[in-house]
C-alpha cells in the first residue's frame, strides 16, 4: 500500500506486513539498510503504532527494532526520490527479502 | 571512483576470523573487500603483526580500511601493523572499538553504501556506545 501525504507534498508513506518467518533478524536488516542507502531520501520505519521512528539507513537500529513475524511495518520517506524509496522498501519486505534486490 | 571502504577482521582464532568474514560475505555481499587473519604463525591462538599487515593490504581501498578485532593483543598488534604500513596508507586505516562479529557486519553494510571511513567506523562503534 502506498499513499501520498498532502501535508507538504513531499512525504510518502507505506505499510507492509513483515512475512519473514523469524521477523526482522540480522540478514533482513542488512538487506533493508543496504536498499535504503541507495536513495537520497530520508527514510524512517517503525512497527505500526510504535512511539519512535527508526532511521532505515542505520543497520544497528533496524536490527534492534526486533520487529516480529507478522507485524506491520510503516515506512515514511521525504526527499527527491522518496516515492521510489518507499515503493522499493515495501516491495523488499512484501517479497520476503529475496536475494538480489538490495 | 566507486571504491568502498575495506574491512579487516583480526581474531586470535583463525576459525573465528574466517567465520566472521563468511558472515560478512553472505549477509552483505561481495561488493566490500573483506580480509581476515587469526592465529599465530605456528598455528596456535594469537595474532601476528605481519599477517595483519598482509590482511590490510589485501583489503586495501582508496577509501580506507576498517579493522575489527577481538581481545587485547589483537588490538595492540593491529595498531602496530598500522604503524608498519607505508606512511600514506597509515592515516586511512582505523581500528574500531566494536564487537568483532556484529561490528564487521555493520561496518561492511555501511561500507557497501559507499560511506566514508569515518562513517563506517561510527556505525561499528555505535554498538559500544551505550
With helices defined by DSSP (H or I, 4 residues minimum), what is the helix count of chain A? 3
* Largest sheet descriptor of chain A: 5 strands, antiparallel
Protein chain pair with the most extensive contact, residues per chain: A-B, 11 and 14 residues
Report the end-to-end length of chain B measured between terminal Cα atoms: 35 Å
Termini of chain A, distance in Å?
A: 20 Å
Structural class of chain A: alpha+beta
Features:
heterodimer, A: 102 residues, alpha+beta, Histidine-containing Protein, Chain: A, 5-stranded antiparallel β-sheet, B: 130 residues, alpha/beta, 4-stranded parallel β-sheet, 6 helices, 4 strands, globular
Task: Give a short synopsis of this structure.
The complex is a heterodimer of chains A (102) and B (130). With 102 residues, chain A is an alpha+beta fold. Chain A contains 3 helices and 5 strands.
Can you put this structure into words, describing what you see?
The complex is a heterodimer of chains A (102) and B (130). Chain A is an alpha+beta fold and 102 residues long. Chain A has one domain (2-94): Histidine-containing Protein, Chain: A (2-Layer Sandwich), CATH 3.30.1340.10. Chain A has 3 helices and 5 strands; from the N terminus they run ββαββαβα. In chain A, helix 1 (26-36) packs antiparallel against helix 3 (82-94). Chain A is globular, with a radius of gyration of 12 Å. The mean pLDDT of chain A is 88. By secondary structure, chain B is an alpha/beta fold. Chain B has one domain: Phosphotransferase system, mannose-type IIA component (Rossmann fold, 3-Layer(aba) Sandwich). Chain B contains 6 helices and 4 strands, in the order E-H-E-H-E-H-H-E-H-H. Chain B has helices at 14-28, 49-58, 72-83, 87-90, 100-112, 117-125; strands spanning 6-11, 34-38, 65-69, 93-96. In chain B, strands 2-1-3-4 form a 4-stranded parallel β-sheet, with helices on both faces. Classes of the chains: A alpha+beta (102), B alpha/beta (130). At the A-B interface, helix 1 of A face helix 5 of B.
Amino acid at each position: 500500500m502506498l499513499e501520498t501525504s498532502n501535508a507538504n507534498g513531499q512525504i510518502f508513506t507505506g505499510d507492509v506486513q513483515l512475512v519473514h518467518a523469524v521477523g526482522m533478524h540480522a540478514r533482513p536488516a542488512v538487506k533493508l539498510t543496504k536498499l535504503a542507502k541507495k536513495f537520497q531520501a530520508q527514510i524512517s520505519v517503525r512497527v505500526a503504532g510504535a512511539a519512535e521512528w527508526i532511521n532505515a539507513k542505520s543497520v544497528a537500529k533496524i536490527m534492534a527494532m526486533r520487529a516480529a513475524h507478522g507485524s506491520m511495518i510503516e515506512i515514511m520517506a521525504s526527499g527527491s526520490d522518496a516515492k521510489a524509496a518507499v515503493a522499493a522498501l515495501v516491495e523488499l519486505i512484501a517479497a520476503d527479502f529475496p536475494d538480489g534486490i538490495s | 571512483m566507486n571504491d568502498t571502504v575495506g574491512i579487516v577482521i583480526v581474531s586470535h582464532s583463525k576459525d573465528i576470523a574466517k567465520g566472521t568474514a563468511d558472515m560478512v560475505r553472505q549477509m552483505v555481499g561481495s561488493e566490500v573487500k573483506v580480509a581476515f587473519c587469526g592465529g599465530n604463525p605456528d598455528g596456535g591462538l594469537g595474532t601476528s603483526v605481519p599477517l595483519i599487515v598482509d590482511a590490510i593490504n589485501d583489503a586495501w581501498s582508496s577509501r580506507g580500511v576498517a579493522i575489527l578485532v577481538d581481545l587485547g593483543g589483537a588490538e595492540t598488534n593491529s595498531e602496530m601493523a598500522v604503524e608498519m604500513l607505508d606512511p600514506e596508507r597509515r592515516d586511512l586505516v582505523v581500528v574500531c572499538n566494536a564487537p568483532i562479529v556484529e561490528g564487521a557486519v555493520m561496518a561492511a553494510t555501511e561500507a557497501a553504501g559507499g560511506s566514508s571511513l569515518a562513517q563506517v567506523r561510527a556505525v561499528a562503534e555505535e554498538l559500544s556506545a551505550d
